[in-house]
Amino acid sequence: MSAGRDHRELSELLGAWALDAVEDAERAEIEAHLATCARCRAEAEEHLAVAAALGNTAAQPPAGLWERIAASLDDTPPPLALEPRHRRLPRRLVVGLAAAAVVLFAGLGYLLVDQQRQIDRLQAALLDDALARAASVALADPDSRRAVLRSEDGTVQVPVVIDATGTGYLLADRLPPLPEGRTYQLWGVSADTVVSLGVLGPEPRLVAFRATIAIDALALTDEAAPGVAVSEQPPLAVAELPV
User: Fold this and answer.
1) What pLDDT score does 234 carry?
2) 24, 68, 111, 210: which one has the fewest Cβ atoms less than 10 Å from its Cβ?
3) How far apart are the two ends of the chain, measured CA to CA in Å?
4) Which residues are bridge partners to 218 per DSSP?
């Protein structure tokens, strides 16, 4: 391949580079580009992670494999003149093709894993977009109830809206991330009853929940993961809901 590739061409080679399936000149060009391109470095790390996962399930092909396969095809003597239905492939050719198939399926496995990662990211983006649209509809509905969960010092402020069906949306993207092993948990308060409305994780963003009872107030706590049935923590933020 010719030298002087642009960003797009080098980016397309990253998957092959991670599988050590590029020529020396290509490898040098790609690695020089990675030294200056943060975007490609991040993509290369993803490719390397997938390649490492594949390495746990399939052996790395030995050096010179393709050359030996080609040689076995080139110098294999012609088969004996038998009837077509009895003709058998030479053993060296069968072994060579089997080895080639191992490499081929390893490559296909990488492509399938990479495609699935892309599909998962796309589906997550679509779900986030659908959730944002649903929250926007609830905010625009005059029958929805709106409030802001606030801490005593006012540093934590989390908007929330609950539509007429009891589906709520918590705009929690401004909450500070919690340390490992901790999670935010949302509670609904009705008279003397307190129920969990959801375990939100350590870094929530836009969260949907379902108010199964008529609630008068909301509270947010910091709990040990994976959440608790009854909280003993003081609330980080609270909000009274309008009637």
Assistant:
1) 92
2) 24
3) 70
4) 188, 239
Number of domains within the chain? 2
Both tokens of 118, joined, read 């892309």
Is the residue at 134 inside a domain? no
How far apart CA 137 and CA 154 sit, in angstroms, is 27
Q: Please classify residue 33 by burial: count the beta carbons closer than 10 Å to its beta carbon, then call 0-12 exposed, 13-18 middle and 19+ buried.
A: buried
Q: Are 26 and 17 in contact (CB under 8 A)?
A: yes
Domain annotation covers residue 164: yes
The CA-based angle 207-209-212, given to 5 degrees, is: 170
Task: Kindly provide the residue ranges of all beta strands, DSSP E only, lying in 88-216, ordered along the sequence.
Answer: 145-150, 157-162, 167-171, 182-190, 193-201, 206-210
What is the overall mean pLDDT for the chain? 74
Q: Are residues 154 and 204 in the same domain?
A: yes
